[in-house]
Amino acid sequence: MRIGLGHGDDGSQTLEQQIQQVVDEENDGFEMAWFSQIMGGDTLTIIALAGQRTSKIAFGTAVIPTYPRHPFTMAQQALTVQAATSGRLTLGIGPSHGIVIENMWGMSYEKPARHIHEYLSVLLPLLNERKVAFNGETYRVNGAIGTKVDTAPSVIISALAPMMLKIAGSMTDGTVLWMTGPKTIETHVVPGITAAAKEAGRPAPRVVASFPICVTEDVAGAREICAKFFAMYGQLPNYRRMLDKEGAAGPADVAIVGNEAQVEQQIRAIASAGATDFLASSFPVGADMGASMTRTRNLLKSLIGKV
Asked: Which of 38, 59, 150, 292 is the most interior residue, by most CB within 10 Å?
């Protein structure tokens, strides 16, 4: 299981600081740097710039909302970033949530599974063949892209529900998860996406499992902080369904917390459940918050290539 670190842009870091973080992670041996796309800067631009300062670490987006970016534009951006990173990009995309798409951006969130299917029907030919001719219910696209790049980026989607897992397995390289515990990964995600990939004659899919994580002796304190910091995710319907499947009351119940031995055991359980990649979203706890972040990073570093 590959281990990567998650990055979120909350406005507290300059662009140079974000790029330097990736440089440091590559020097520490981390295998992937994952970037969310919420309300901060443009992640694909950040990755392209970080790619110019690194040579080995792979990059992923977890995830870029599809509705506000036309698939033709997404393909242009992704191919450019793939060239800038010498082929190290995993393009993670997803429909986001109704509260974001409708309430914030004023767009329709009708039939997100159909939207993703049609989106991929435009995006994937553009990435792989540099041209597309598709006429669907919401997208009618005919065109070509002239970007020169040797290989297309890997594409994964944020698939949680059965229909989305079927789309992920049959059309893409896998899924990236959030608020999805090990039991749900093993009994719901892996069987659904693997069956769809096998039926479509595709390789075994990637399952990128992302978790809040903190190495600390104060387990109760960490879960309390996690419950507050990640509270909104327990209220979003897509994640709420995954928490319910796990039997979790809220995000704190699926967070990975404890001392080094306890956290390692939990990470190994996620690998045993069928995850191929681990995306660590570290959060701090205690008076010296930097201490817990350092402990978390050091443990993750020690597990590279061993899980």
From this structure: 59
Distance from C-alpha of 238 to C-alpha of 14, rounded to nearest angstrom: 32
Residue 243's H or E segment, with its range, is helix 237-246
Is the pTM above the cut of 0.85?
yes
Note the CATH number of domain 1-158.
3.20.20.30
The enclosing H or E element of 113 equals: helix 112-129
Helix 43-51 vs helix 71-84: crossing angle, to nearest 10: 20
Summarised one tens digit per residue, pLDDT across range 22-80 is: 999 999 999 999 999 988 899 999 999 999 999 999 999 999 999 999 999 999 999 99
In this predicted model, what pLDDT tens digit does every residue of 163-211 receive, in sequence order?
A: 999 999 999 999 999 999 999 999 999 999 999 999 999 999 999 999 9
Asked whether residue 274 carries a pLDDT value surpassing 90, the answer given is yes
Q: Are 296 and 215 in contact (CB under 8 A)?
A: yes
Of the pLDDT bands very low, low, confident and very high (cuts 50, 70, 90), residue 286 is confident
pLDDT digits (tens, 9 = 90+) for 219-228: 999 999 999 9
Burial degree of 76 (CB within 10 A; 0-12, 13-18, 19+): middle
- Contact present, 216 and 283 (Cβ < 8 Å): no
Fold match, 1-158 / 174-307:
yes
CA 20, distance to chain mean position in Å, is 21
Q: Where are the domains of the chain?
A: 1-158, 174-307
Q: 174-307 — its CATH code?
A: 3.20.20.30
Amino acid at 267: I
Strands 89-94 and 174-178: unpaired
Q: Are 205 and 173 in contact (CB under 8 A)?
A: yes
